């Protein structure tokens, strides 16, 4: 709301989802490097200096991930939601994340291809995988943001569902479509991972903490179900949008 601070540029992106907001910001950015975070994340002291040091130490890297902590929203549902989406970027994670999150990343602006910003989701679904595959991605665990999202169970499930719908929709629009048998198989694997296996694996990794209990696993299972409902919803919507063939042998 406050637009009085010198150098602060507010960008209007009506009706945009998370991917659309990220894309709008990247289009307007003018610096050599761009840091991306979310409106409910609080940069912790040393974030900028840590990223600057990473740039100096790794000149061949164009994409950095930072770490994310859960210092403020520590209720059981908030912590489960945090683990569900940001467990790999958590400061307590034992290994570097395989990919960055838009809660905390930094990218060299010149490394983004113009065509990757022509639609929402292009940066997250095209730029990031390309830079990772090219070996131009590094992790900077000293650059940390605090993820602030205090929600009860109902609000957490709703947030998870709507966030997943936006992410999955953008992914469907920016990546080649899979045949339906392959998509069904992928959905089955996700069901096992998100609902049946992943929650308990996560709880095992929390041994020695107050969160290593069955309640955490149950909340993670319900959040995983919300993602699966979102997946089915998006797939059914896209199925309903497919053009009907006007004659035998046409369409498809």
- Assembly level: single chain
Biggest sheet, spatial arrangement of strands: 1-4-3-5-2
Determine the structural class based on helices, strands and strand pairing.
alpha+beta
Q: Percent of residues in helical segments?
A: 40-55%
Task: Describe the largest sheet.
Answer: 5 strands, mixed
Radius of gyration: 19 Å
In round numbers, the mean pLDDT is 88
Strand content bin = 5-15%
Give the SSE string: HEEHEHEHEHHH
DSSP summary: helix tally: 7
How many beta-strand runs?
Answer: 5
Q: Which residues sit in consecutive blocks of at least 5 with pLDDT less than 50?
A: 244-252
Shape by Cα distribution: globular
List key phrases describing it.
252 residues, alpha+beta, five-stranded mixed sheet, 7 helices, disordered C terminus
Can you give a write-up of this model?
This protein has 252 residues and is of the alpha+beta class. The chain has helices spanning 18-28, 47-57, 76-86, 122-133, 153-174, 180-205, 214-241, and strands spanning 33-37, 41-43, 63-69, 104-108, 137-147. The protein has a 5-stranded mixed sheet with strand order 1-4-3-5-2. The longest helix has 28 residues, at 214-241. Residues 244-252 have low confidence and may be disordered.
């Amino acid at each position: 709301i406050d637009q009085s601070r010198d150098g602060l540029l507010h960008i209007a992106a009506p009706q945009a989802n998370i991917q659309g907001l990220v894309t709008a910001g990247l289009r307007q950015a003018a610096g050599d490097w761009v840091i991306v975070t979310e409106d409910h994340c609080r940069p912790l002291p040393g974030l900028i200096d840590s990223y600057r040091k990473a740039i100096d130490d790794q000149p061949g890297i164009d994409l950095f991930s930072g770490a994310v902590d859960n210092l403020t929203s520590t209720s059981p549902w908030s912590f489960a939601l945090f683990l569900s989406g940001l467990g790999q970027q958590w400061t307590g994670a034992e290994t570097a994340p395989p990919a960055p999150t838009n809660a905390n990343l930094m990218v060299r602006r010149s490394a983004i291809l113009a065509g990757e910003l022509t639609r929402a989701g292009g940066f997250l679904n095209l730029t990031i995988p390309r830079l990772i595959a090219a070996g131009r991605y590094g992790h900077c665990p000293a650059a940390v943001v605090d993820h602030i999202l205090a929600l009860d169970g109902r609000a957490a499930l709703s947030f998870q569902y709507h966030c997943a719908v936006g992410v999955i929709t953008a992914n469907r629009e920016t990546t080649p479509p899979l045949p339906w048998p392959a998509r069904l198989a992928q959905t089955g694997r996700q069901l096992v991972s998100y609902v049946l296996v992943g929650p308990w694996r996560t709880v095992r990794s929390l041994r020695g903490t107050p969160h290593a209990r069955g309640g955490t696993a149950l909340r993670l299972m319900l959040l995983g179900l919300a993602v699966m409902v979102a997946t089915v919803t998006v797939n059914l919507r896209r199925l309903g949008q497919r053009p009907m063939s006007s004659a035998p042998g046409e369409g498809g």
